[in-house]
Amino acid sequence: MQICDMNSIFLFSVISYLGAGGWSPLNSDQHQWLQIDLRDRMEISGVATQGIHGSPDWVTNYLLMFSDTGSGWKQYHQEDGISTIPGNSNADNIVHYKLLHTIRTRFLRFVPIDWNSEGRIGMRVEVYGCAYKSDVADFDGRSSLLYRFNQKSMSTVKDVISLKFKSLHSDGVLVHGEGQRGDYITLELNQGTLALHINLGLASSHTLVTIGSLLDDQHWHSVLIERFNKQVNFTIDKYTQHFRIKGDCDSLDVDYELSFGGIPLPGKPGTFLRKNFHGCIENLYYNGVNIIDLAKRRKPQIYTGNVTFSCTDPQITPVTFTSSTSSYLLLPIESQADGFSIRFQVRTWNRDGFLFYTQLYQESEHLLLFFSHGKLKLTYQKSLFEKTEMTTGSNLNDGLWHTVSLSTQGLQVTLQLNNDVPSTMVTKTQLISFAYYFGVLVSVWCPSNIKDLKCKNPTLAFQGCMRLIFIVNQPVNLILVQQGLIGNFSDLQIDLCAIQDRCQPNFCEHGGQCSQSWNTFYCECSGTGYTGVTCHNSVYEPSCEAYSHSETTSGHFLIDSDGSGPLGPTLVYCDMTEDKVWTVLNHNNTEMTWVQGSSLEYPYSMQFSYSLTQEQLQALVARAEHCEQEIIYRCWRSRLLNARDGTPFSWWIGRTGERQTYWSGSLPGVLQCACGLDENCIDMNYFCNCDLISILFKHFRILLIYGFDFSGNFWNAASFNKDTTYLHFSTFQAELSAHISFYFKTTVGSGVFLENLGVKDFIRIELISSQEVMFSFDVGNGPVNLSVKSPVPFNDKQWHFVNVERNVKQASLQVDKLPIVFQDASGEGHIRLQLNSQLFVGGTASRKKGFLGCIRSLTLNGVTLDLEEQAKLTSGVQPGCPGHCSSYGSLCHNGGKCTEKYNGYTCDCSNSAYMGPFCTKEVSVIFEAGSSMTYTFQESFLSSQNESEQFSAIFTEKNKPRNNITFSFLTTHTPAMLFFATMDLQEYMAIILSKSGYLQIWYRLKKQKETGVLSAGSINLANGQLHRIKIKVKGKHLYVQVNNADNPLVFLSIILSDRPSLDSQVMTAGARGFIGCLSSVQINQITPLKEVLYQSGSTRVLVSGRLRQSSCGSASLDDLKTISTVHSVSGNIPMQESIHSITFSTFCYITALFQNGLNSFFSSEFYTQHPIMTT
User: Fold this and answer.
1) Confidence grade of residue 1168 (pLDDT, cut at 50, 70, 90)
2) DSSP code for 277
3) What phi and psi values does residue 576 have, to the nearest 5 degrees?
4) Taking the chain, what is the end-to-end CA distance rounded to the nearest angstrom?
5) pLDDT of amino acid 618
6) Most distant CA pair in the chain: distance in Å?
7) Kindly report the CA angle at 541 between 540 and 542, in degrees rounded to 5?
8) Assuming Cys at both sites, which of 46, 119, 137, 382 could form a disulfide with 6, CB separation 3.0 to 4.6 Å?
9) 579 near 704, Cβ under 8 Å?
10) pLDDT at 39
11) Apex CA 103: angle with CA 98 and CA 106, to 5°?
């Protein structure tokens, strides 16, 4: 096989490199080109250029175009779709350019784009390549080739089909074969794409795969199909799709023959009603057999049906409108008294664009034809304010060729799209035209003198391709237009359709739907779980640990374990415990399963399936710091191990696929249960209790390596102590998409976070000043810099978050919650970030200043780097980073205290009335009638010598005690006792709801016979809603805050009264007690509800009746209605007597003694209403 490269045969030269002269056109503009005829089709591997010897004339950039016929050109594109090729920087140096993919052609064009500004266009060129031979067949849309097998049926498990084709037609069958039992294979063009149908015998195994687009461009396209069993590689040009055929069969059974170019007998069972192929096929091979060569030599196994063996190329001249503002084509015509007609074909990706305009005989009349929202619209403009319109078609911006016909006859205008039924409109006068504009709307439509009337063009200029333009049934010779002999034009590419499919390949990730316009593409990410211009960024957190730091509580969440990687999100249960965050996955068998009759010959097998793929499960395990899975095995006369010959009766298989025989507490290969190792089995003649037949029932806990605690990745950190040290990792693979995120904290003002270099490309993130972070990269088009400036310094020893992304459409940089900075990618240029060095973290290979400080949770395209492990191997870098509470301490709420850990922090809620990871989970109980809870302080808290003095001190300036009481409640019952405190039987303090639901604070002092009352507002708080009460005592000032009122009530004095009715109100409230929900009670550092609910056996707690743990925040009025009604109290019982008789079983009763002031009136007991029934 001949290899065609730059060392191959020299094909052509325009003036020797050593001689003078060359090609230099008279006019130096972008309408010039140098065309070369190689006399036959050749395989081109490279070109070389020079300027004109001894002159200032050279070309700096040029286009390379090729054609088989000298018309209908195609533009050569480099990788990434770049069309321009770099030329020369002086007149005499030789610049070679090796084509990435060889091209097979006869004609070449060099089209100068830029040249030396101080000279003219000047070129000397050479072309390199090889001779190219091929076998070609021409199909006319009715012909085909039949390849007959030597036997009746051909059954294959491996097939290779290769061919090249070109066509102007968008539909047609290229290959077809079928069998009697339903097998078939069909390769066809369908609307300009290539479709492969395969079925291996069963109706349910039909598989359809499509690839490519715009294949009806009359240029050669290479096809390769490789099948082995059910695995298929399907290639068109340089794009390959791998897929697996549905069904269980592996062989393809085809009867009698394969057909190429069409299906000769339509209607045969299993066949498709499809058009035959119209175009040329070359080098057609089926499993190594040259089909066209056999046909040319008229071999008997080939039937030739009206096929010729040379390629006929129709002479069609397309034109490309390149600009959305200035492209146009002007064609003058002779006046037609009886009307006019035009017809053309058009293809585009744009939904809007002006197609055709003509001014009619009357100066104020115009006829406009344009695309609007993907539909074809015709407007007859009689005057500025009078018009008639009609619309036809839809989705015409699909990239396919559409035929448009417009004609006038008398007063009738007819518009037809493709082969649809024509649409008509009637005008008042006969329409006569003199000139046609294609592609842009001339200024006469919106003259400058009527701008005040808000005149505007109906749409943008047309961007796309046209061909086969007919005026009054006569074809327009666009080559004459190009030569300036007829008409006029601007910003056109004549004899070329330069449309590109920007969705091939599809840069939308994770199943995003690609759509496009002429210049760019768009990704629709709805329903994918990802976001961003290419659907790259996951909308879900990578772990339950990450969710926990957004202050969420336990529940079901979608997590994306590899972030922007290929794996999709997974639904898990996040268990936010006090010390760890667990990720829980459920499987398909959580119920007890009874097994009977199992034997070695017929063992019982149980499969555990999870609601995620094996790849997702492996990713979760890989990211987890600790994993476990618990299976309970209960035995009844069912042995686990066989002590006689060592063959176990049971085993399990984990993710490695290997059989394991050890159980919880044992080791692999030991063949003993935990009791055997600990020597505490019931009968030491057996190494497992299950092996002892006399044991009727026993259970074992089996621990497998699956389960999830992800805190390690979130807190994985390294501390950089010298600006000359760094960590290094393997090259960052991010050609088309790079997503990097990390946290940092520092005390210095500059330093490089990370850097990765290529030959010319690079990517870098750095702190360039104390208030600016910069993201820089170069993909071959020149450096791009994005920076975020902060109004406050970044070197404040606090954690800061950096998130950068770069893809083929744009780049972005975000720091903390500052505004995101975006930079769009250039429309023309390199798109691949090609790196080859190691990735440096905390330092740089380019000798820039390294980083001093901490970097944490560094994630690249969904993979979190293990900074700690690498830091252990690197001098000057320490694993981990202390000081998390400086940044995250604010997440510990309600008095919780932040406590440092090696890999993060925890919130200590011991001095808070709340619980949970962030001390935000309310501790609540529901009180029913007859229920109570008493809290008694330790004796050491009492001070018997001056109890009364301390209790009285809350209303004096002496000692100025400071005390706080907070709690929340929800009720609909009044009156109610919310809070009661007593020093002894002579004095007390009570917080009650009056009969009207108002909050009141009652008290009686030992040295005073009068009873005092403070009224905190006149709002009914017994309305079934949750209310938060905060009481603060400082000296003789008492502050009461209800809910989140901005201005708490302040009491500077007290109301005293000797009316007995006041005490009776407290007595009534006490008798009725409290029926409702009480939450988050805290008296200074004392949290009674937490002790009664979570400290069983506490001697300070006495519970009477039934308390139910609940959540006041989620309780409803219906919950309150289920609570029993209160007991009735008759007679006028003095409060002192009710205390002595222990009638506090129906209300909240607190007695305590604190060190001074308000603390003193709390003696020894606290009542709240709810025991210990946790849900």
Assistant:
1) very low
2) P
3) -85, 90
4) 77
5) 75
6) 129
7) 115
8) 46
9) no
10) 92
11) 115
Tell me the C-alpha distance between 912 and 660, whole Å: 47
473/406 Cα distance (integer angstroms): 11
Q: What are phi and psi of 1062, to 5 degrees?
A: -65, -50
> What is the secondary structure of 470-501 as a DSSP string?
EETTEE--HHHHHTTSSSEEESEEETB-----
Cα–Cα distance measured from residue 817 to residue 217, given in angstroms and rounded to the nearest whole number: 50
Phi then psi for residue 639, to 5 deg, are -75, 145
Q: Which residue has the higher pLDDT, 283 or 255?
A: 283
pLDDT score for 1054: 41
User: Of 795, 788, 797, 787, whose CA–CA distance to 816 is shortest?
Assistant: 788
The type of residue at 176 is: H
Q: Give how far Cα 833 sits from Cα of 259, 730, 1122, Å.
A: 45, 15, 66
Average pLDDT, the chain: 81
Instruction: Report the pLDDT averaged over residues 592-602.
Output: 75
Contacts of 597 (CB under 8 A, 6+ apart): none
Q: Is the pLDDT of residue 783 over 80?
A: yes
Residue 614 one-letter amino acid = Q
pLDDT greater than 50 at residue 895? yes
Query: pLDDT digits over 1144-1157, tens only?
Result: 223 333 333 222 23
For 868, phi then psi, to 5°, come to -65, -45
**pLDDT at residue 513 tops 60:** yes
Comparing 252-256, 424-428, 1090-1094, 1160-1164, which segment has the lowest mean pLDDT? 1160-1164
Say how far apart CA 616 and CA 147 lie, in whole Å: 47
Nearest to 77 by CA among 831, 1048, 711, 823: 831
| DSSP 8-state code for residue 562 | T
CB 576 within 8 A of CB 552: yes
Query: What residue type is assigned to position 590 of the chain?
Result: T
| Cα dihedral across residues 6, 10, 13, 15: positive or negative | positive
- In sequence order, what are the beta bridge partners of 412? 409, 426
State residue 335's pLDDT score: 66
For residues 1090 and 922, is the Cβ–Cβ distance under 8 A? no
CA distance 286 to 507: 33
Write down the H helix ranges in 905-1001: 947-952
Give 108's strand partners.
36, 66
Model confidence at 203, pLDDT cuts 50, 70, 90, reads: low
What CA–CA distances, in Å, run from 810 to 528, 532, 551, 821, 1104? 20, 10, 32, 10, 67
Are 114 and 60 in contact by the 8 Å Cβ rule? The answer is: yes
Please give the single-letter amino acid code of residue 352: D
Determine if residue 615 is left, alpha or beta; phi over 0 gives left, psi from -120 to 50 gives alpha, anything else beta.
alpha
Whether 884 has a pLDDT exceeding 50, the answer reads yes
Q: What is the amino acid identity at position 135? A: D
Whether residue 276 contacts residue 141, with contact meaning beta carbons closer than 8 Å, is answered with yes
Q: Is the pLDDT of residue 160 over 80?
A: yes
Show the beta-strand stretches assigned E in 363-433: 366-372, 375-383, 386-392, 402-409, 412-417, 423-426
Token pair recorded at residue 984:
């002894």
Residues β-bridged to residue 773: 767, 788
* φ/ψ (deg, to 5) at 283: 45, 60
State the Cα–Cα distance between residues 877 and 844, nearest whole angstrom: 14
- The alpha-carbon radius of gyration of the chain (Å, integer) is 43
Cα dist from 510 to 522, 526, 803, 804, 851, whole Å: 14, 11, 20, 19, 35
Select the more confidently predicted residue: 667 or 461. 461
Q: Give backbone dihedrals phi and psi of 838, rounded to 5 degrees, phi first.
A: -70, 155
Q: Is the pLDDT of residue 7 over 90?
A: no
Backbone φ and ψ for 292, nearest 5 degrees, come out as: -70, -35
Sheet holding 435-438, edge to edge: 386-392, 375-383, 366-372, 353-359, 435-438, 328-332, 488-490
